[in-house]
Write a structure and sequence with these properties.
The complex is a heterodimer.
Chain A (H helix, E strand, L loop, with lengths): L3 E10 L2 E11 L4 E6 L5 H8 L7 E6 L2 E2 L5 H4 L4 E4 L11 H8 L9 H11 L1 H5 L10 H13 L5 E5 L7 H16 L3 E6 L2 H7 L2 E6 L2 E7 H6 L1 H7 L3
Parallel strand pairs in A: 3-8, 3-9, 6-7, 7-8
Antiparallel strand pairs in A: 1-2, 1-4, 4-5, 9-10
Helix pairs in contact in A: 3-6
Chain B lengths: L1 H31 L6 H15 L5 H24 L7 H23 L4 E2 L7 E4 L2 E4 H23 L1 H11 L1 H6 L4 H26 L2 E2 L5 H14 L4 H20 L7 H15 L14
Antiparallel strand pairs in B: 1-4, 2-3
Helix pairs in contact in B: 1-5, 1-8, 1-9, 1-10, 2-3, 2-4, 2-8, 2-9, 3-8, 5-6, 5-8, 6-8, 9-10, 9-11, 10-11
The chains are: A alpha/beta, B mainly alpha.
Chain lengths: ~240, ~290
């Protein structure tokens, strides 16, 4: 059975249909990517799966739990954490306090020091800036912090919404390397990206989202080779 | 010297009361993004609760019951009147809050009638400070205010719950993704605000022991003004704005020529601040970072 299974998910904004009943799944250990243009419904998918925005119809199961109607703040407790679009770190808190908030759902705080150390080792810049107010970090550092904050909650499935957005090419490469690394350490990844080339290269499987529907799916390699994806998302 | 010292202590203690009320406005605004115009009437409810329980002749029991009752009332108001409007237009919430305010005032009028009640909580005299007589009640108000502010600041900065409150005030969605129960945080905020309002009611009674159903209205509006002057949503801002306004009121009241215009002067400060610095002294303009 798949770790995350989304079936016939429909989302409306008022009368506008944003997701027209999409289905996809993520297996344990995989990196799965949803690619698509602006406005295709990628962020809507991510936010409705975790309950940040309401679903009109469909079902979501995760790790054996039916989480279709689970309120957002309980999702993290069962092992699914999202790095939201635009990072959304807590700007007025320090780097350290942001990481502390990441561990909010962990009841047993005895492992906190080790977790923190692991984050600082993975992201040395965060250690250098641990007492700095997060709002003063650069875009790349904020993305590192958002990822670090999410990892603090020990996710089984990490969802990343446009982690490469607004970053310089060098940082984009770094972000994708980190995602691969996190996956290697045993965390399943669901990724949403506009950068189709880079994300397909690290994905086990991927789905193409267009106007609220999934129009294509396959392995990362298959999609990268597909005529349609190359024309629409890889610049020929 | 005498005038200076009495005005200083008077201004600080009145300012402390305003600050305590302003904290309720500003915390609720910061976290639930709404203006709770019924907040001033919680003060009045606190006052009447003290009045009722003073029948036991035990002021500490009366104060405890006032805090407890106001906390429960604050939570209930939020659950019944405001929670169903989460996500509704701010205007709908604002009108509801004004409605709750009138409801509380009318209920108090029905239960306690219109004649003002005189409530003496403590028989406090004055002490001599540097040869100047100073009301003990003013000193007590000052002391409690300082303690409340220090404890609240430490609570927000250094506890798990306090940090969760900052997180919710900054970004509800991201806070939920961390596992923070936003509704729970809003409940805690209303509880803290209402407890502070009950204490403010106590200290207002110690200044002027005449209780009517509109007892909390004027201090409520003044404290709201203070919160906006300090920067609505900012906790240090509410403290600063409250103390500033308390000072202005006490100084203006001492100058015979302008004394009748004290209220007008206070609200004029609000207008000037809003013109010069719309976010208030310590309010922040949020800039989006891409």
């Amino acid at each position: 059975m798949a770790m995350l299974e989304v079936k016939n998910l429909e989302v409306y904004y008022g009368v506008i249909c944003a997701l027209k009943g999409i289905s996809f799944d993520v297996n344990e250990g995989e990196i799965v990517t949803l690619i698509g243009a602006n406005g295709a419904g990628k962020t809507t998918t991510m936010q409705s799966v975790v309950g940040l925005i309401p679903k009109r119809a469909g079902s979501v199961t995760f790790d054996g739990h039916d989480i279709t109607k689970t309120p957002c703040h309980k999702i993290v407790h069962i092992g699914m954490t999202q790095v939201p679009e635009g990072r959304r770190i807590f700007q007025e808190l320090t780097v350290y306090e942001n990481l502390l908030m990441g561990a909010y759902s962990i009841k047993d705080q005895s492992g906190f020091k080790n977790d923190l150390d692991a984050i600082y080792t993975r992201f040395p810049r965060l250690r250098e800036r641990k007492n700095q107010i997060a709002g003063t970090l650069s875009g790349g550092e904020q993305q590192m912090l958002a990822m670090g904050r999410a990892i603090m909650s020990h996710p089984k499935l990490l969802m990343l919404d446009e982690p490469s957005m607004g970053l310089s090419p060098l940082l984009v490469d770094q972000v994708f390397e980190i995602i691969k690394d996190i996956n290697k350490d045993g965390t399943t990844i669901l990724l949403v990206e506009q950068n189709a080339g880079k994300s397909l290269a690290i994905s086990d499987r991927a789905y193409v989202l267009e106007n609220g529907s999934i129009v294509l799916s396959g392995t990362g390699k298959e999609l990268a080779a597909s005529e349609m994806v190359r024309k629409a998302y890889l610049g020929g | 010297m005498e005038l200076f010292l009495t005005t200083l202590i008077n201004g600080l203690s009145l300012g402390g009361i305003y600050a305590m009320i302003a904290l309720g406005y500003t915390m609720v605004y910061g976290i639930a993004k709404m203006l709770n115009f019924a907040h001033g009437d919680i003060i009045m409810v606190g006052g009447y609760t003290i009045y009722v329980f003073m029948a036991t002749k035990n002021p500490f029991l009366a104060i405890f019951m006032a805090v407890l009752f106001c906390v429960i009332l604050g939570i209930l108001i939020e659950k019944i009147a405001y929670k169903p409007l989460r996500g509704a237009s701010p205007l709908a919430v604002l009108i509801t809050a004004i409605g709750v305010s009138y409801l509380l005032q009318s209920l108090a009028l029905i239960i306690f009638k219109s004649a003002s009640k005189t409530v003496t909580v403590f028989e406090l005299k004055s002490v001599s400070l540097f040869g100047v007589p100073v009301q003990i009640s003013a000193l007590l108000t000052l002391a409690v205010t300082v303690v409340v502010m220090v404890v609240l600041t430490l609570f927000i900065k250094y506890t798990r719950l306090g940090r969760a409150m900052i997180a919710v005030s900054e970004d509800k969605g991201a806070a939920q993704l961390m596992g923070i129960n936003v509704n729970g945080i809003i409940t805690v905020t209303f509880a803290i605000g209402s407890a502070l309002a009950a204490l403010a009611g106590l200290f207002l009674l110690m200044r002027a022991p005449n209780l009517t159903n509109t007892f909390g209205a004027m201090p409520g509006i003044k404290a709201f003004t203070a919160a906006v002057i300090g920067g609505i949503g900012s906790i240090p801002g509410a403290m600063l704005g409250g103390i500033l306004l308390g000072f202005v009121e006490c100084i203006a009241a001492k100058i015979t020529v302008i004394a009748p215009y004290t209220d007008a002067i206070e609200f004029s400060i609000l207008i000037i601040i809003l013109l010069v610095r719309p976010t208030g002294f310590l309010g922040k303009k949020r800039r989006e970072k891409v």
